[in-house]
Amino acid sequence: MTEDTSPIAAESVAAVAAAAPAGTHDADIDRLFASTGPLGQAVGGFRPRQAQTEMAKAIADAIAQQRTLIAEAGTGTGKTFAYLVPALLWGGKVIVSTGTKNLQDQLFLRDIPTVRRALSAPVSVALLKGRANYVCHFHLERTLQNGRMTSREDVGYLREISRFMKTTSSGDKAELSNVPETAPIWNLVTSTRDTCMGAECQYYQDCFVMKARKEAQQADVVVVNHHLFFADVALKDTGVAELLPSANTIIFDEAHQLPEVATLFFGNTVSTSQILELCRDVLAEGLSHARDGADWGQVVLPVEKAARDLRLAFPQDVVRLAVNQIAASSIFFPALETMRAQLHGMIAVLEKQAERAETIEQCRTRAVELGYKLDGWNSAPAAAGGKPPKKAKAADAEDDEGSVLWVEAFSSSLQLHQTPLSIAPIFNKQREGVARSWIFTSATLAVKNDFQHYASQMGLWDEPAQSWPSPFDYGEQGLLYVPQNLPQPNSPDYTDAVIDAALPVIEASGGRAFLLCTTIRAVNRAAERLRAEFEARHLDFPLMVQGEAGRTELLDRFRAAGNAVLIGSQSFWEGVDVRGEALSLVIIDKLPFSPPDDPVLAARIDALESKGMNGFMHHQLPAAIINLKQGAGRLIRDETDRGVLMICDPRLISKGYGRRIWQSLPPFKRTRELSAVQAFWSGEAVGS
How many Å apart are CA 173 and CA 161, to the nearest integer? Predict the structure, then answer.
């Protein structure tokens, strides 16, 4: 691209005034997004879209005025370019946070370089991930010397990682595709906040985490993910804290995920597994560096027993209970008090021996932090003579709504959670101070163009919000089908009824289908039924089921097959892009309401209803609609896609709120007749 084709010369970018009045950049945006502009010349298949151009103007204005903007962009709008163009040209120091590490890599490796080249924008870009993504020289060396491998596979993976370290410049494990991201070996060759030696480490100058943070400090644009961003706000351990003071623009892509991610990090969780892992490390480090300092076996034994007894306070395999649902007579509260006392006993020993070795000091720090969390959970019951507390404050939340204490038991561990009822006051506190622009964008932030639910969750009550429609012709490209005569979703045979209704539709579509379920139990039952039915009916549709392989591998196989059926739960409802004929049918088993027995949901509904609001209409329904919009968004991904969205839940028709739900979905034609669905594909040559 020659220099004069760009409407803004590269050397002038830095000179553009950040505090320009609204609309200052409109003419530039029009030229940039025109078919004859730099994007049109540099990006294959680029076509001007009015919604994309208007969205870019709104974001440029928000950046110029250092304001907040909530921006919903329908599927196909091209929101990534709509925020990258103004961000790279006028954003100053920019932090872009996205939903997953995969999307983070896509932005860093593909989207930003494309826009930067097209605009000749002289900006430097850095990628920053959490420390668990970078191989640690110290822990790799220690594992090579005396690692306890659990399998022969791990031995081979360790060799691969060791070779990788000789050639990599980033240490990012995403570059080493030969070792699965979920392989246990990664835990032995990466550091955590607790196990990092910091400046005391002999490899500090070569540390990949420190290198990534230094590059992020110096870069104009830094790409992070939501977990990293909020882990930093809560823990100050990700490097983002050092970036925030100098950032002029913060952009959250896939911003609909923020309430859940922020809730995760603004709360506290302590588990019996963490305590048992600590005991193992205390024993190993004590015997290695201070064998004569204590009888280390006897130091950890009572703590391990207390942790196991705490888990055994709930004999069931799976439990989710708010603290006020636990009987006052339960053995849980005395067991919790014992756990706290035994842990403090171990801390006392560690304090005496901590100076013997840095790793023992690390164990002491971890123990103190776990003790702090247990004290926060335990203080109210202890003060009440073993009775559960009525209410507790979140550790870092100075708000009036407090938090909910709840337990979650798994087969071999117990987790104690302290979850804020609202993240809004905590998040607002993070946004105070330095003036900067905050952009929140996603395809699903509103319910029928109403942003109230999202804004109230994030504390963005009076901030401007806009929505730009999808360019797709949903009336021609898609059909919404709600089958007749299905039982209520709480019926014991509901999943079987869904499969019965879905089978003729799957046959008519020639496979090419996603079946999205709201529970893992439904996934397993649907897989069992479809395997049997495909065999009995001699239907040659490859069946792919969540859990049988990684998500990326399943999607690659699905695209390659061309006539497959994929069954998945929540992880396939969003962030999945299958274009073309390979996906022509999306079946949703039921409306994605959160489980009514969820302790946090129940507490939030109580809080809303204590203010005279309707918990269902103000919280459960809009949350379900936003989730459903994500699932429905898997179907039409391109202007040439065609397909059927089949929602099996009869409440979409029978309940008064059903109309609000389907009016929030893309404007498909609607039918309840199977014959209309079969006719939809009748003009296609579809094999069965």
Answer: 9
